[in-house]
Protein backbone atom coordinates (compact mmCIF):
# COMPACT_ATOMS: atom_id res chain seq x y z
CA UNK A 1 0.00 0.00 0.00
CA UNK A 2 2.75 2.45 0.96
CA UNK A 3 4.82 1.62 -2.15
CA UNK A 4 1.81 2.01 -4.43
CA UNK A 5 1.00 5.40 -2.95
CA UNK A 6 4.58 6.58 -3.44
CA UNK A 7 4.55 5.44 -7.08
CA UNK A 8 1.25 7.21 -7.76
CA UNK A 9 2.54 10.37 -6.12
CA UNK A 10 5.67 10.39 -8.30
CA UNK A 11 3.58 9.88 -11.42
CA UNK A 12 1.37 12.81 -10.51
CA UNK A 13 4.38 15.03 -9.88
CA UNK A 14 5.87 14.05 -13.22
CA UNK A 15 2.65 14.82 -15.05
CA UNK A 16 2.48 18.25 -13.45
CA UNK A 17 6.09 19.07 -14.37
CA UNK A 18 7.11 20.54 -11.05
CA UNK A 19 8.38 24.06 -11.71
CA UNK A 20 10.16 25.28 -8.61
CA UNK A 21 10.61 24.87 -4.90
CA UNK A 22 10.04 27.68 -2.42
CA UNK A 23 10.78 27.26 1.27
CA UNK A 24 11.14 23.51 0.78
CA UNK A 25 7.58 23.13 -0.59
CA UNK A 26 7.21 22.05 -4.22
CA UNK A 27 4.78 24.05 -6.32
CA UNK A 28 2.99 21.35 -8.26
CA UNK A 29 1.94 23.17 -11.41
CA UNK A 30 4.65 25.85 -11.67
CA UNK A 31 2.32 28.31 -13.41
CA UNK A 32 1.93 31.23 -13.56
CA UNK A 33 5.65 31.71 -14.01
CA UNK A 34 7.63 33.19 -11.16
CA UNK A 35 8.70 36.37 -12.95
CA UNK A 36 10.91 39.20 -11.74
CA UNK A 37 9.96 41.60 -14.54
CA UNK A 38 10.18 42.39 -18.24
CA UNK A 39 13.82 42.83 -19.15
CA UNK A 40 14.77 43.10 -22.83
CA UNK A 41 13.34 43.50 -26.31
CA UNK A 42 14.64 42.11 -29.59
CA UNK A 43 14.27 44.45 -32.56
CA UNK A 44 14.83 43.41 -36.17
CA UNK A 45 16.07 46.23 -38.44
CA UNK A 46 17.95 46.59 -41.75
CA UNK A 47 21.03 48.14 -40.07
CA UNK A 48 21.50 47.00 -36.44
CA UNK A 49 24.53 49.20 -35.74
CA UNK A 50 22.98 52.40 -37.10
CA UNK A 51 19.79 51.78 -35.14
CA UNK A 52 21.78 51.08 -31.97
CA UNK A 53 23.56 54.41 -32.47
CA UNK A 54 20.18 56.17 -32.64
CA UNK A 55 19.02 54.66 -29.35
CA UNK A 56 22.48 55.04 -27.83
CA UNK A 57 22.37 58.83 -27.92
CA UNK A 58 19.03 58.67 -26.09
CA UNK A 59 19.78 56.04 -23.42
CA UNK A 60 23.48 55.05 -23.27
CA UNK A 61 26.33 56.02 -25.65
CA UNK A 62 28.31 52.87 -24.79
CA UNK A 63 27.16 50.26 -27.32
CA UNK A 64 27.70 46.50 -27.04
CA UNK A 65 27.86 43.80 -29.67
CA UNK A 66 28.16 40.06 -30.17
CA UNK A 67 31.81 39.07 -30.47
CA UNK A 68 30.98 36.54 -33.23
CA UNK A 69 28.80 36.87 -36.36
CA UNK A 70 26.04 37.54 -37.17
CA UNK A 71 26.34 41.17 -36.08
CA UNK A 72 23.99 42.11 -33.24
CA UNK A 73 24.17 45.31 -31.24
CA UNK A 74 22.86 46.20 -27.78
CA UNK A 75 21.88 49.37 -25.92
CA UNK A 76 21.36 49.34 -22.17
CA UNK A 77 18.23 51.10 -20.90
CA UNK A 78 18.82 51.13 -17.17
CA UNK A 79 18.52 47.50 -16.03
CA UNK A 80 16.73 46.67 -19.30
CA UNK A 81 18.25 46.57 -22.77
CA UNK A 82 17.43 46.65 -26.47
CA UNK A 83 18.91 44.00 -28.80
CA UNK A 84 19.20 44.81 -32.51
CA UNK A 85 19.61 42.21 -35.25
CA UNK A 86 18.74 41.81 -38.92
CA UNK A 87 20.20 42.56 -42.34
CA UNK A 88 19.72 44.86 -45.32
CA UNK A 89 16.53 43.06 -46.42
CA UNK A 90 14.89 42.92 -42.98
CA UNK A 91 11.53 44.54 -42.33
CA UNK A 92 11.74 46.52 -39.05
CA UNK A 93 9.65 45.33 -36.10
CA UNK A 94 9.90 44.40 -32.42
CA UNK A 95 10.67 40.70 -32.72
CA UNK A 96 10.20 39.48 -29.13
CA UNK A 97 10.05 40.46 -25.49
CA UNK A 98 11.64 38.74 -22.51
CA UNK A 99 10.85 38.35 -18.82
CA UNK A 100 13.20 36.97 -16.20
CA UNK A 101 12.18 33.98 -14.10
CA UNK A 102 13.69 32.40 -11.01
CA UNK A 103 13.62 29.00 -9.34
CA UNK A 104 13.30 26.87 -12.49
CA UNK A 105 15.69 24.20 -13.68
CA UNK A 106 16.82 23.77 -17.29
CA UNK A 107 13.92 22.99 -19.60
CA UNK A 108 11.22 23.23 -16.94
CA UNK A 109 9.72 26.47 -18.22
CA UNK A 110 9.28 25.01 -21.69
CA UNK A 111 7.72 21.84 -20.24
CA UNK A 112 5.30 23.89 -18.14
CA UNK A 113 4.23 26.13 -21.00
CA UNK A 114 3.78 23.26 -23.44
CA UNK A 115 1.80 21.41 -20.78
CA UNK A 116 -0.52 24.42 -20.57
CA UNK A 117 -1.16 24.23 -24.32
CA UNK A 118 1.16 27.11 -25.26
CA UNK A 119 2.92 26.77 -28.59
CA UNK A 120 6.72 26.90 -28.37
CA UNK A 121 9.27 27.70 -31.05
CA UNK A 122 12.05 25.27 -31.97
CA UNK A 123 15.69 25.35 -30.91
CA UNK A 124 17.46 25.79 -27.58
CA UNK A 125 16.02 29.29 -27.09
CA UNK A 126 12.56 28.42 -28.39
CA UNK A 127 10.07 31.12 -27.42
CA UNK A 128 6.42 30.96 -26.47
CA UNK A 129 4.10 32.04 -29.28
CA UNK A 130 0.78 33.76 -28.55
CA UNK A 131 -2.43 33.48 -30.65
CA UNK A 132 -1.18 36.23 -32.99
CA UNK A 133 2.31 34.77 -33.36
CA UNK A 134 3.94 37.32 -31.03
CA UNK A 135 6.97 35.84 -29.28
CA UNK A 136 7.86 35.76 -25.59
CA UNK A 137 11.20 34.61 -24.16
CA UNK A 138 12.19 33.65 -20.62
CA UNK A 139 15.66 33.84 -19.10
CA UNK A 140 16.86 33.22 -15.56
CA UNK A 141 17.75 35.88 -13.04
CA UNK A 142 19.77 38.05 -12.77
CA UNK A 143 19.60 38.46 -16.57
CA UNK A 144 21.68 41.16 -18.24
CA UNK A 145 23.92 40.96 -21.28
CA UNK A 146 25.17 37.48 -22.17
CA UNK A 147 28.81 36.41 -21.87
CA UNK A 148 29.10 36.37 -25.67
CA UNK A 149 28.56 40.16 -25.75
CA UNK A 150 31.47 42.60 -25.64
CA UNK A 151 31.81 46.40 -25.54
CA UNK A 152 31.53 47.99 -28.97
CA UNK A 153 31.90 51.61 -30.01
CA UNK A 154 31.25 54.42 -27.58
CA UNK A 155 29.42 56.75 -29.90
CA UNK A 156 30.28 59.95 -28.00
CA UNK A 157 31.35 61.42 -24.67
CA UNK A 158 28.07 63.25 -24.37
CA UNK A 159 25.66 62.27 -21.65
CA UNK A 160 22.57 60.41 -22.88
CA UNK A 161 19.38 62.42 -23.20
CA UNK A 162 17.80 60.46 -20.35
CA UNK A 163 18.89 58.51 -17.31
CA UNK A 164 16.89 55.35 -17.84
CA UNK A 165 15.79 53.12 -14.97
CA UNK A 166 14.13 50.21 -16.75
CA UNK A 167 10.81 48.99 -18.14
CA UNK A 168 7.52 50.45 -16.98
CA UNK A 169 5.23 48.58 -19.38
CA UNK A 170 4.92 46.89 -22.75
CA UNK A 171 1.90 47.12 -25.08
CA UNK A 172 0.84 44.34 -27.43
CA UNK A 173 -1.72 45.05 -30.15
CA UNK A 174 -3.72 41.87 -30.64
CA UNK A 175 -6.56 40.65 -32.86
CA UNK A 176 -8.72 39.28 -30.02
CA UNK A 177 -8.16 40.76 -26.56
CA UNK A 178 -10.06 38.09 -24.64
CA UNK A 179 -8.31 35.24 -26.44
CA UNK A 180 -4.92 36.82 -25.83
CA UNK A 181 -5.83 37.49 -22.20
CA UNK A 182 -6.51 33.77 -21.69
CA UNK A 183 -3.08 33.01 -23.16
CA UNK A 184 -1.15 35.47 -20.98
CA UNK A 185 -3.15 34.53 -17.90
CA UNK A 186 -1.46 31.13 -18.05
CA UNK A 187 1.97 32.79 -18.00
CA UNK A 188 1.51 35.81 -15.74
CA UNK A 189 -1.58 34.99 -13.67
CA UNK A 190 -4.91 36.84 -13.53
CA UNK A 191 -5.22 40.26 -15.10
CA UNK A 192 -4.69 43.13 -12.67
CA UNK A 193 -7.06 45.58 -14.29
CA UNK A 194 -8.69 47.09 -17.34
CA UNK A 195 -8.50 50.67 -18.56
CA UNK A 196 -10.41 52.86 -20.99
CA UNK A 197 -9.27 55.31 -23.67
CA UNK A 198 -7.49 53.30 -24.86
CA UNK A 199 -9.15 50.02 -23.89
CA UNK A 200 -6.48 47.81 -22.38
CA UNK A 201 -6.20 44.63 -20.33
CA UNK A 202 -3.29 44.73 -17.88
CA UNK A 203 -1.12 41.99 -16.38
CA UNK A 204 1.40 42.53 -13.61
CA UNK A 205 4.92 41.19 -14.21
CA UNK A 206 6.66 41.92 -10.88
CA UNK A 207 7.36 45.68 -10.97
CA UNK A 208 6.59 45.90 -14.69
CA UNK A 209 3.35 45.52 -16.65
CA UNK A 210 2.07 43.97 -19.86
CA UNK A 211 -0.89 45.58 -21.62
CA UNK A 212 -3.14 44.24 -24.38
CA UNK A 213 -5.09 46.46 -26.75
CA UNK A 214 -7.02 45.77 -29.95
CA UNK A 215 -5.07 46.20 -33.16
CA UNK A 216 -6.28 49.01 -35.39
CA UNK A 217 -8.14 48.19 -38.59
CA UNK A 218 -5.74 47.50 -41.44
CA UNK A 219 -2.77 46.86 -39.12
CA UNK A 220 -1.16 43.59 -38.13
CA UNK A 221 -0.89 42.42 -34.51
CA UNK A 222 2.41 43.55 -33.04
CA UNK A 223 4.57 44.19 -30.04
CA UNK A 224 3.63 47.83 -30.40
CA UNK A 225 5.80 49.78 -27.98
CA UNK A 226 7.83 49.69 -24.79
CA UNK A 227 7.56 52.36 -22.11
CA UNK A 228 10.69 53.03 -20.06
CA UNK A 229 10.92 54.85 -16.75
CA UNK A 230 13.48 57.67 -16.63
CA UNK A 231 14.80 59.63 -13.67
CA UNK A 232 13.84 63.27 -13.17
CA UNK A 233 11.20 63.09 -15.89
CA UNK A 234 9.41 66.24 -16.98
CA UNK A 235 7.13 65.86 -19.98
CA UNK A 236 7.78 69.27 -21.54
CA UNK A 237 11.54 69.12 -21.02
CA UNK A 238 11.71 65.56 -22.35
CA UNK A 239 9.90 66.52 -25.55
CA UNK A 240 12.21 69.52 -26.02
CA UNK A 241 15.33 67.36 -25.56
CA UNK A 242 14.14 64.89 -28.17
CA UNK A 243 13.25 67.56 -30.71
CA UNK A 244 16.57 69.35 -30.22
CA UNK A 245 18.37 66.05 -30.91
CA UNK A 246 16.42 65.63 -34.14
CA UNK A 247 14.18 62.84 -32.81
CA UNK A 248 10.56 62.76 -33.93
CA UNK A 249 8.11 63.23 -31.04
CA UNK A 250 4.67 61.66 -31.53
CA UNK A 251 1.32 62.23 -29.75
CA UNK A 252 1.11 60.50 -26.40
CA UNK A 253 -0.64 60.50 -23.03
CA UNK A 254 -0.73 63.34 -20.53
CA UNK A 255 2.01 61.85 -18.35
CA UNK A 256 4.29 60.37 -21.03
CA UNK A 257 6.35 61.34 -24.08
CA UNK A 258 6.73 59.09 -27.11
CA UNK A 259 9.23 59.19 -29.95
CA UNK A 260 9.62 57.38 -33.25
CA UNK A 261 12.88 55.86 -34.47
CA UNK A 262 14.01 56.04 -38.15
CA UNK A 263 12.07 52.82 -38.87
CA UNK A 264 8.80 54.01 -37.36
CA UNK A 265 9.10 52.00 -34.13
CA UNK A 266 7.65 53.88 -31.15
CA UNK A 267 9.14 54.11 -27.67
CA UNK A 268 7.45 55.77 -24.70
CA UNK A 269 8.99 57.52 -21.69
CA UNK A 270 7.54 58.33 -18.27
CA UNK A 271 8.61 59.23 -14.76
CA UNK A 272 9.39 56.89 -11.86
CA UNK A 273 6.05 57.28 -10.06
How do the helices and strands line up, and which of them pair or pack?
Blueprint: H1 2-16, E1 20-22, E2 25-27, E3 35-44, H2 48-59, E4 62-66, E5 73-77, E6 80-85, E7 93-101, H3 108-115, E8 119-120, E9 128-129, E10 135-140, E11 149-154, E12 164-174, H4 177-188, E13 193-195, E14 200-205, E15 208-214, E16 222-230, H5 235-244, E17 248-250, E18 256-260, E19 266-270
Parallel strand pairs: 3-6, 7-10, 12-15, 16-19
Antiparallel strand pairs: 1-2, 3-7, 4-5, 4-11, 5-6, 8-9, 9-10, 12-16, 13-14, 14-15, 17-18, 18-19
Task: State the helicity in percent bands.
Answer: 10-25%
Task: Report the average pLDDT across residues.
Answer: 90
Measured distance between first and last alpha carbons:
58 Å
CATH superfamily of the largest domain: 2,3-Dihydroxybiphenyl 1,2-Dioxygenase, domain 1
**Would you give the CATH topology of the largest domain?**
2,3-Dihydroxybiphenyl 1,2-Dioxygenase, domain 1
Number of domains: 2
Widest sheet: strand ordering: 8-9-10-7-3-6-5-4-11
What would your notes on this structure say?
By secondary structure, the protein is an alpha+beta fold. It folds into two domains: 35-154, 2,3-Dihydroxybiphenyl 1,2-Dioxygenase, domain 1 (Roll), CATH 3.10.180; 164-270, 2,3-Dihydroxybiphenyl 1,2-Dioxygenase, domain 1 (Roll), CATH 3.10.180.10. Helices cover 21% and strands 39% of the residues. The chain has five helices and 19 strands. The strands form three sheets. It has a nine-stranded mixed sheet, with helices on one face. Strands 13-14-15-12-16-19-18-17 form an eight-stranded mixed sheet, covered by helices on one side. A two-stranded antiparallel ribbon has the order 1-2. A hairpin with a 2-residue loop joins strand 14 and strand 15. The longest helix is centred in the N-terminal third of the chain and has 15 residues, at 2-16.
